Amino acid sequence: MIPVFLLRLLLIFGVSLLVFAPITGYIAYNYGRSFWRWFALGLLLPFFSVFIALFVAMRERSAEDQAGRQNPPRR
So where does this one cross the membrane (predicted)? Predict the structure, then answer.
């Protein structure tokens, strides 16, 4: 018989996989990254992967803004 505590822990982990993995993939896909690669990362690191994907997206956006400021469009 499985203890109730272990059953609850497995349920929480399973739900987090179903929630965080697709969110991570969606964030990455919106910034031009591979959905399935980031989905797999979301399966391996359910909670932290969302923050990693957001960090990568914000860093990429910042680099694009920096490049845009250095090379303004010609008129």
Answer: 7-29, 35-57
pTM, full prediction: 0.70
Name every residue whose Cβ is closer than 8 Å to that of residue 24 and which is 6 or more positions away in sequence.
Answer: 38, 39, 41, 42, 49, 50, 52, 53
Domain locations along the chain: 14-70
The Cβ of residue 42 has, within 10 Å, a number of other Cβ atoms equal to 27
Over the stretch 4-51, which tens digit does the pLDDT of each residue have? Answer: 889 998 898 888 888 889 999 999 999 889 999 999 999 888 888 889
Alpha-carbon span 42 to 34, nearest angstrom: 12
